[in-house]
UniProtKB/TrEMBL annotation:
This is 2-C-methyl-D-erythritol 4-phosphate cytidylyltransferase. It comes from Nocardiopsis exhalans. It is an enzyme of class 2 (transferase). Keywords: Isoprene biosynthesis, Nucleotidyltransferase, Transferase. The record marks R151, K210 as: Positions MEP for the nucleophilic attack. InterPro entries: CDP-ribitol_syn (IPR012115), IspD (IPR001228), IspD/TarI (IPR034683), IspD/TarI_cytidylyltransf_bact (IPR050088), NAD(P)-bd_dom_sf (IPR036291), Nucleotide-diphossugar_trans (IPR029044), Sc_DH/Rdtase_CS (IPR020904), SDR_fam (IPR002347). One of its GO terms (molecular function) is nucleotidyltransferase activity. Belongs to the IspD/TarI cytidylyltransferase family. IspD subfamily. Belongs to the short-chain dehydrogenases/reductases (SDR) family.
Length: 461
């Protein structure tokens, strides 16, 4: 049971927060997709804010979420919504049915937590999910501390909360007999009204956060970026099956990452068209050149499935000492080119449900001295990716952005010279991840590609 009855008032929105978009999809779709992929979940029912049932139905229909059997209006309180959910399960046998209640606005639930909850129900009748509290919790009355509980015994509750259907039904049956009944979660109902039932606790995860406050939207968006640094990995057989007969257009395909992507796609059966200023005299900053390249590829194969743009320029130096022509070139190649490519490739990609793949740099998160233009245009590319993922979602066209750690490419060598062996990613590693992303269902994501753990010391480009 996905509980999606929130109104969004706490974050000052007219639209429920579960319908906000993060990483190219609504929060609700992200959450439902998690359960769609859960092998041990058989059916999903959504309890939706009554005024937005139609919106939820459209999301489910468009995303092809086959496990969602019903979308029902929720109640005016958490307790009322849970009871309506239980009513919707009245045709199930209570002795062999398990039910998980999950907040729709916890879109980063892991498969591990779901599996642990279902496994726990084999030996327990009620299961909660919680994580240790890293903060000291205080009890307050009239702004004065009345108690400081021992932190080692405290946990922060999450969802899903899982029950055998007979257990949660019995607890609510007793609860409604209490004139003063109110509760903010379902485990507390079991604890209060059927205290003889032990409630097992499964370890949750910090990423399984609830989007409640305005800042949570930004945090969740960044967490999605971190989560997608581990993209789906495909086998050689997967590559052949997914790439054979497809058309791939690579701008900047003569060397470095672009050449790696082109080589990998071509090796596994794709028709690859490589364009660059050096090999085909294609200037990505020229809209006519871009349009001509796409038309050539489409005329030859009758389709375009993937468009990749790795072209870029990196000029080192203070802005006040940079030649105006170099400023113009950087802006045209690093930002206007992705814009022009996006505009030109969109009609082709709508016919195939394809994807545009762009590239940024870790410097997009913080502008750095000596390459202000480069880092700022890369930040613009990230925003372009996220905006177009939203714009194109209804058309079935995906767009993502690769954020590689410092990578051994001719462009980098030209800017920085030779660097210590082993300190850089290889362009082949980045190319492999790029193709994995092309074959995935991701959209609106910024995918980190790193040699080691993201938390590292030192400057990165």
């Amino acid at each position: 049971m996905v509980l999606a009855g929130g109104s969004g008032q706490r974050i000052g929105l007219a639209t429920p927060k579960q319908l906000l978009k993060i990483a190219g999809k609504t929060i609700l779709e992200h959450t439902l997709t998690v359960f769609e992929r859960a092998e041990r979940v058989d059916e999903v029912i959504v309890m939706m804010n009554p005024g937005f049932v139609g919106d939820a139905e459209a999301i489910v229909r468009k995303a092809g979420l086959t496990k969602v059997s019903r979308i029902l209006p929720g109640g005016t309180s958490r307790n009322a919504t849970t009871q309506l959910a239980l009513d919707a399960l009245s045709h199930y046998a209570v002795d062999n049915t398990n039910v998980l209640f999950h907040d729709a606005v916890r879109p980063m639930l892991s498969q591990r937590i779901i599996d642990d909850c279902v496994t726990a129900l084999e030996t327990h009748h009620a299961v909660d999910v919680a994580i240790p509290s890293s903060d000291t919790i205080i009890e307050v009355d009239d702004d004065l501390i009345t108690d400081v509980p021992i932190r080692s015994r405290l946990r922060r509750g999450q969802t899903p909360q899982a029950f055998r259907l007979s257990t949660i039904r019995a607890a609510y049956a007793k609860a409604w007999q209490d004139a003063g009944f109110t509760a903010t979660d379902d485990c507390s109902v079991v604890l209060r009204y059927t205290p003889q039932v032990p409630i097992h606790v499964v370890t949750g995860e910090e990423q399984n956060m609830k989007v409640t406050q305005p800042v949570d939207i930004f945090i969740a968006d960044k967490l999605f970026q971190l989560a997608t640094s581990a993209t789906p990995e495909y086998s050689e057989e997967d590559y052949i099956r997914e790439l054979s007969g497809k058309t791939v257009v690579v701008f900047g395909g003569s060397y470095g990452i672009g050449a790696g992507v082109a080589d990998l796609a071509e090796k596994h059966g794709a028709r690859v068209f490589r364009y660059s200023r050096s090999a085909t005299r294609t200037n990505v900053a020229n809209p006519d050149d871009v349009a001509g390249a796409l038309e050539q590829a489409h005329s030859a194969t009758g389709r375009i499935d993937f468009v990749v743009n790795t072209a870029g320029v990196l000029r080192i130096g203070r802005l006040d000492q940079t030649d105006p022509e170099q400023i113009e070139e950087t802006l045209r190649v690093n930002y206007l080119a992705p814009v022009n490519i996006a505009r030109a490739c969109f009609p082709y990609l709508t016919r195939t449900g394809g994807q545009l793949l762009l590239y940024t740099s870790s410097s997009y998160t913080r502008g750095r001295a000596e390459y202000s233009l480069y880092s700022s245009t890369k930040a613009a590319t990230v925003n372009l990716t996220q905006a177009l993922a939203d714009e194109w979602s209804e058309d079935g066209v995906r767009i993502n952005c690769i954020n590689p750690e410092r990578t051994q490419t001719p462009m980098r060598t030209k800017a920085f010279g030779q660097e210590p062996a082993g300190s850089l990613l290889s362009s082949e590693e980045v190319a492999r991840t790029s193709v994995d992303v092309l074959l995935s269902g991701l959209t609106g994501h910024v995918i980190d590609v790193r040699r080691e753990d993201p938390v590292r010391n030192g400057e990165q480009i």
